[in-house]
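[09:14] KT: can someone run the structure on this one? pasting the chain below
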Amino acid sequence: MEKYAIPKIGHPLLDAEHETMLGFAGLCTISCPHLESRQDCDGCIDGKPEQCRDGLHNILGHVLPYIQQHFEEEESLMKQAILNVKDPMHMPVHLSTHNRLLQQFRAVAAELNKASTGNYMVRKTRQLHDLITHELLDHIYQADEKLIPHMVK
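[09:31] RB: done, structure tokens below
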């Protein structure tokens, strides 16, 4: 998998949390070492899809509460700084993005919970990895960086 750099937005707490969130993408590559080379679990070592499923459950069990907590902390900082934000529409759009991202993470978890076989673990793990390395990173680059000049550090 590619290496991704977390943007430093200049807020120590948020920067540390962003790094932790990117670390969850690394756990995805450990959970399923075939993220780049396979479309599904066919041909994988016997029993490995179940191990991947357990690994993905474990990652989701950590990533969902962590991201939710991070968004709550970020939103609290935003509310403290809202009077200084020049774009009054930024806050509702930002909160909407947080809700959308949480729904996407929850959808992966719900789909995983419904699965009776592990044959699609590569796709689910890749989906989680991409949510972190694309959707979440895009949010940090496009939205979080705009807030920093207005936040107390």
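[09:33] KT: thanks! The first helix runs from residue 12 to 31.
[09:34] RB: yep, looked fine to me
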